[in-house]
Write a structure and sequence with these properties.
The complex is a heterodimer of chains A (241) and B (137).
Chain A lengths: L7 H5 L2 E8 L7 H14 L4 E5 L7 H4 L8 E2 L3 E2 L2 E2 L2 E5 L1 H4 L8 H14 L5 E7 L6 H9 L3 E7 L3 H16 L4 E9 L5 H8 L4 E6 L11 H5 L2 H11 L4
Parallel strand pairs in A: 1-7, 1-8, 2-6, 2-7, 8-9, 9-10
Antiparallel strand pairs in A: 3-4, 5-6
Helix pairs in contact in A: 5-6
Chain B lengths: L2 H18 L4 E10 L6 H14 L8 E7 L2 E4 L5 E2 L1 H5 L4 H9 L4 H4 L10 E5 L3 E9 L1
Parallel strand pairs in B: 1-2
Antiparallel strand pairs in B: 1-6, 3-4, 3-5
The chains are: A alpha/beta (241), B alpha+beta (137).
The structure holds adenosine-5'-diphosphate (ADP), magnesium ion (MG) and zinc ion.
Adenosine-5'-diphosphate binds next to helix 2 and strand 9 of chain A.
Chain lengths: 241, 137
């Protein structure tokens, strides 16, 4: 039997809340939301960790401008603190080279990361998820029993098609869903809100398309001042974060 | 010293298994460590001893037996097989250290020595597992 799995609960024991930022779809802003949420909560004085589980296309380190840091080895590995966030990502180990993993390797990486990372005391651990409901999502559900999901969609019917599948499976498995956040909205439309309401799930509000967002990528201080962050902050107020 | 985290996982898993089997005392744990984990055995044994001291009576007189599982890698493209010592020759220190932390990043830093494909399989030699536990009810 794989011993590493047994120690995962212990590693996550001192974390008050774990929030996985997920979507059925790629490119909808999960990484932006996850990184910004982590920055936002850290700025409010919470102890925050961020785990990038998008193992093929990690991007949180790009958004946060993380460079030249490496975890400290001490009874496991301790994530470096960047801009007030304890940040863990596969990029420390891949040097940002392409990562051709198959499913079983993905599961093994997640087990290893969860077994050896020493997060310590945290108010929040935010997880930046890859799109869909493949190995990473199933493993988060399997190994991180107390994870709640924050689901991101764009206003598009195409995005919602994939997002509603993820929502249905999470509901079926009785996984806590904080709600659905609509990102990159460009016109006033209640299409997503109505659909989410009809699924009897919380609609958290929307973040407008931010034309200047690209200028804040890699610059956390700028990101904190962005319109994107303002919208996110308003929306977080509605869920007491 | 991430050996410590893995050693702890062995003991947590052993106690869990013992509880399931209703063992009062664990007398022996056989441990298999994948070669790709490149565990420093001295450090790992030291960590086991230190953690055992902090545990209750169940583990007081436990004997630990550590075996290394040799690695076999097999190419999905050309079916060539090789092992970690072949692979290690081509890795620099940082790449080798990265594999020590996360064995699967072998796919990132290494290729099939015969055809150059990154699409190979770790047949054996990863992970940390318990192969058997002995004890008294
Ligand atoms: N509200 C927004 N306004 C403008 N651009 C955005 C917005 N949200 C995300 N983006 C951009 O869209 C792209 C995809 O975002 P990302 O967070 O990487 O998506 P995902 O993680 O879901 O694949 C990025 O270039 C990001 O900067
Ligand atoms: Mg992403
Ligand atoms: Zn080959």
């Amino acid at each position: 039997m794989d011993a590493r799995v047994s120690v995962i609960d212990k590693r996550l024991k001192n974390i008050k809340r774990i929030i996985s930022v997920a979507s059925g779809k790629g490119g909808v802003g999960k990484s932006l939301v996850a990184s910004s949420l982590a920055l936002n909560l850290a700025k409010k004085g919470f102890k925050v960790g961020l785990l990038d589980l998008d193992l093929y296309g990690p991007s949180s380190h790009i958004i946060l401008g993380v460079k030249d840091v490496f975890p400290k080895e001490e009874k496991g590995i301790i994530p470096p603190n960047v801009h007030g966030i304890n940040f863990m990502s596969i990029v420390y180990f891949t040097e940002d080279k392409p990562s051709p993993f198959r499913g079983i390797d993905i599961s093994n990486i997640i087990i290893e990361l969860l077994a050896i990372t020493q997060w310590g005391l945290l108010d929040f651990l935010i997880i930046d998820m890859p799109p869909g409901m493949g190995d990473e999502t199933l493993d988060v559900i399997r190994f991180i029993k107390k994870s709640e999901f924050l689901v991101v969609s764009t206003p598009s019917k195409v995005a919602l098609g994939a997002v509603s599948k993820l929502l249905k499976i999470l509901k079926e498995l009785k996984i806590p869903i904080i709600g659905v956040l609509e990102n990159m909205s460009m016109t006033r439309s209640s299409f997503i809100k109505n659909e989410i309401d009809s699924m009897d799930l919380p609609y958290l509000g929307c973040i407008s398309f931010d034309n200047a967002l690209e200028e804040s990528i890699g610059k956390p201080n700028k990101l904190l001042e962005s319109d994107f962050m303002k919208d996110l902050d308003d929306l977080l107020e509605g869920i007491n974060l | 010293m991430h050996e410590w985290a893995l050693a702890e996982s062995i003991l947590v898993a052993a106690v869990e298994a013992a509880e399931k089997e209703k063992l009062k005392i664990i007398s022996e744990i056989k441990i298999s460590i994948g070669e790709l984990q490149q565990i420093e055995q001295d450090i790992f044994e030291f960590a086991l001893e230190e953690i055992i001291k902090t545990q209750g009576d169940k583990l007081k007189n436990v004997k630990t037996v550590i075996e290394t599982e040799k690695s076999t890698l097999k190419c999905k493209n050309c079916e060539h097989t090789w092992d970690f010592s072949d692979m290690k020759k081509k890795l620099n220190e940082d790449e080798s250290e990265a594999i020590h932390f996360i064995p699967e990043v072998a796919f990132v830093h290494a290729r099939c020595p015969k055809c150059g494909s990154p699409d190979f399989e770790i047949m054996t030699g990863r992970g940390v597992s318990i192969t058997s536990i002995k004890g008294e009810r």
